[in-house]
Amino acid sequence: SYTATTLYLYFQNRDAIFGEMAKQSYQQLDASLAAATRELSALEDLRMGLETTLRFGLSQPNQFFLLFPFHPTTCNRIPHSEGTRILQWFEQRLQAACLETRAQWIAPPREMAAMMLSSIYGWVSFGAYFDQDESYSFFKQPKIISQQLLSALQK
Fold first, then answer.
1. What is the C-alpha to C-alpha distance for residues 105 and 8, in angstroms, rounded to an integer?
2. What predicted TM-score, i.e. pTM, was given to this entire model?
3. Torsion sign over Cα 127, 130, 133, 136
4. Average pLDDT, integer, range 36-60
5. Which of 44, 88, 100, 119 has most Cβ atoms within 10 angstroms of its Cβ?
6. How far is 115 from 113, CA to CA, in rounded Å?
7. Are residues 98 and 109 in contact, defined by beta-carbon separation less than 8 angstroms?
8. How many C-beta atoms surround the C-beta of residue 149 within 10 A?
């Protein structure tokens, strides 16, 4: 057993605790992305990355939200490096998909990566809020959502 103050023997402050939790969440998501996206075409790699990130967020929303601390009281204190790495992961896959497919996309890769992560954040927020409501089960299907997101980004 331990007291709340015991944590501060290992961490300087509350922000350091949240920072470490975000780092561990990123490592989990990164390992899932690496396992799901081996040797696929760039577009399939991107789709699987979307699906994996959605699945991670829907199954572990609190850990997912640590990666993107948008709450006004925490967003300036928790390092964004983990969220930035995920944004870069999507940007790189989008660049490769643009070259591979030669399709018309609605925006440059960095903006599309930000749109994707914003959409994922919204889906995870929605899924967490309506977690017990079965009438919203469609919104918790990562495969369908990821396909729709990719379709929406192509002209």
1. 48
2. 0.81
3. negative
4. 88
5. 119
6. 5
7. yes
8. 20
